[in-house]
Amino acid sequence: MHKLSGIDATFLYMETNETPMHISSLMICEPAKAGENPYELLKSQIVERLHEIPSFHRKLMHTPFYIDHPVWVMAEVVDLDYHIKHARLPEPGNVEQLRMVVQGLHSLTLDRDRPLWQFYIIEGVEDPAFGLKKGSFALYTKGHHACLDGGAGISVMDILSDREPTPRPPLPKSKIQLYAEKPGFFELIGSAYGKFIQQQVNMIAALPALSKAIGNVAKLALEDSRGILSKMRPAPKTRFNVRIQKQRAWGVQSLSLPAVKALAKQTGATLNDVVLSICGGALRRYLERHNELPDRSLVAAVPVSLRELGDTSNTNRVANMNCEIGSHIEDPVERLALVHKNSVQAKKELAAIKEVFPTDYSFFGAPVIVSAMAQVASRTDIVNQMPALLNVAISNVPGPRHPVYFAGSKVSAFFPVSIATHGCALNITLQSYVDRLDFGLIACKIAVPDVQDIADDIVAEFRQLKEAVKANAAKEKSVAPKPAPAKSVAAKKTKAAQKPKLKAV
Asked: How confident is the model at residue 501 (pLDDT cuts 50, 70, 90)?
C-alpha cells in the first residue's frame, strides 16, 4: 500500500472543474516512415512498455470517511481506449489549429476512477512556416500532478521514448513487479492513525533543524531587514490575480538554448535569471498595451526542485521561492541586474529553511477540509477580494539534451503545458530540449485571451536584451583608457644619464 504524501494529495484537493491539476506536454514529431500509421506505431510502443511505469497502473482509493490522504492501489483493468486516443487536425493542419485543440483537451479533468494519465496522438500537423513537413504529428500527454512533477514526467518520457530511431526492446515483465494489493477497511484506518502519530514524532525530531532554520532566517533579517520587510507586502494586483474559469488559452515560442546560455555568461547571470528578466519585460509590454502596468515589480513564484540526483520516483519533490522580476524597469540590462540580485537573495532564503520545508502533512479530515477550501475559492469571489501573494508562476524544467524518438519518429519540439490556478491565472513553463528552450504559456482564457502575444513578447525581449548588452559592451570598449606608449630603450638611457648623481658623504 502506497499512501500519497501531503503535497501529492494537495493537488487532488485543489482540483475543481475550473482548476484541473494535471501537467502536460506537447511533442511535435517528424513524419513517420512512408506507408506507416503513426497512431498504431506509437500506441503499440506505449503498450509494450506500459509495465515499466508502475504509476500508469495505479488508481486512487480513499480512506474510510476521508479521515486521511488516499492511497494508490493497482487498477484491475487499464482501458487503453480511454488512455490512448487518436485525433486528426482538419486541413491545412497548422500550428494555430494545434493550439486550439490543446487548449480544449487541457481544460478537461481526468477520470479519478482510472489511472490518472492520458495520451493523444494528433495527426495532420503541417505548417511550412514552422518547418513542419506533411505527415508530421503531435503527441499530447496528460498526467495528474498528484502522480508526478515535471522531473518525474521527464523520467516517464525517458522510458517511453528512445535515443535512437530504432526502438529498444521492452524490459521483461518478470523484472517489473506490480503489486496488486488492495487494503481492507481496518488496514486503512490503522494506517491513517499510524500516520497521525508518525507526524507528531517527526515534528519532535525536526525541532533541532527548526531551531537552526529560525536562526538562519533571523540572520538574514539582520543582514537585509529592508529587503525582508519589502517581501512581506502583497504583490501588486493585476488581471492575473483573479478567480479563473474553466477555459484555457495556450501560447508557444522557442529560443536558442546556446544563445541564452551565452548571454547569461556574458552578463555574469544565470540562465534562469535571463529567463525571469525577459519574462518580466514581456509582461511589462503586455500590461502597458492594456494600460495596466503597476508601479511596482510583479512577483513570480519559481518552483525549485528538491529531487536528489538519480531520484526518478513518480512523486512531487518541489518547493517554491518568490522573486520580483523587474517589470517596473524599462532598461533590459538594469532589469537583469535587479533580477539577478533578487534571485540570489531568494535562494538564500530558501536555503535557510530547506531542511524543514514541509514535504508532507497529515491531520484528521484533511481531504474534506482542504477540498472545502478549494471549493470556496471556486464558488465565491474571495480570490478577487484578497491581496495578491504573487502574480505569475515561471518554471524551468530541464529536459533531454539529446534527440528523442517515438516509434522511430524524431521529436523536433517539446512544449510544456502546465497549470493555472485561482489567483495565478498565468503560468509560464519552459523546457530545454537539445539546443532549444521551448516555452508553453497556459492561462485562463477569460483573464488572458491573448496569451500568444506574451509568448511573442518573450522572444522580442530576449532580442532587445541581447542588443542592449552588445551596445553596452561596445560603449565600454570605446571609452576605455588607452595604454601609455612604451618608451624606447635609448630614451630610457638618455633620461637616466640626465639624472644628477648623488655624492657620498
From this structure: very low
Could you list the beta-strand ranges (E) of 92-150: 117-127, 132-144
Determine the length of the chain: 505
Q: Which residues contact 358 (CB under 8 A, 6 or more apart)?
A: 6, 7
Beta bridge partners of 370: none
> Which range among 82-86, 343-347, 498-502 shows the weakest confidence by mean pLDDT?
498-502
Cell numbers at 352, concatenated: 535557510
Residue located via cell numbers 529560525: 214
Distance CA 139, CA 468 (A): 38
Which residues contact residue 360 at a Cβ distance below 8 angstroms, ignoring those fewer than 6 apart?
5, 6, 7, 199
- The Cα–Cα gap between 283 and 203 comes to 41
In 221-317, the DSSP E strands lie at 248-256, 299-305
Cell of 28: 511535435
**Using the 8-state DSSP alphabet, how is residue 120 labeled?**
E
Are 37 and 49 spatial neighbours (Cβ–Cβ below 8 Å)? no
SS3 490: helix
pTM: 0.88
Q: What is the DSSP string of 322-377?
A: EEE--TT---HHHHHHHHHHHHHHHHHHHHHHGGG-------TTHHHHHHHHHHHH
CA atoms of 62 and 69, how far apart (whole Å): 7
Q: Does domain 2-477 bear CATH number 3.30.559.30?
A: yes
- CA torsion, points 37, 41, 47, 53, in degrees to nearest 10? -120
77 burial type by CB count under 10 A (0-12 exposed, 13-18 middle, 19+ buried): exposed
The per-residue pLDDT for 476 is: 81
Higher pLDDT pick, 491 / 21: 21
Nearest to 192 by CA among 4, 417, 431, 350: 4
Residues near 151 by beta carbon (within 8 Å), at least 6 away in sequence: 305, 307, 311, 317, 397, 398
The C-alpha atoms of residue 154 and residue 68 are separated, in whole angstroms, by: 29
CB 66 within 8 A of CB 368: yes
For the chain, the structural domain boundaries read 2-477
Residues 6+ apart with CB under 8 A from 165: 405, 408, 410
| Amino acid occupying residue 381 | D
Residue 348 burial (C-beta neighbours within 10 Å; 0-12, 13-18, 19+): middle
pLDDT digits over 167-208, tens only?
Answer: 999 998 877 766 667 788 878 888 887 877 877 777 777 767
For residues 122 and 98, the answer to whether their CB atoms sit within 8 Å is: yes
Q: Does residue 305 have a pLDDT over 90?
A: no
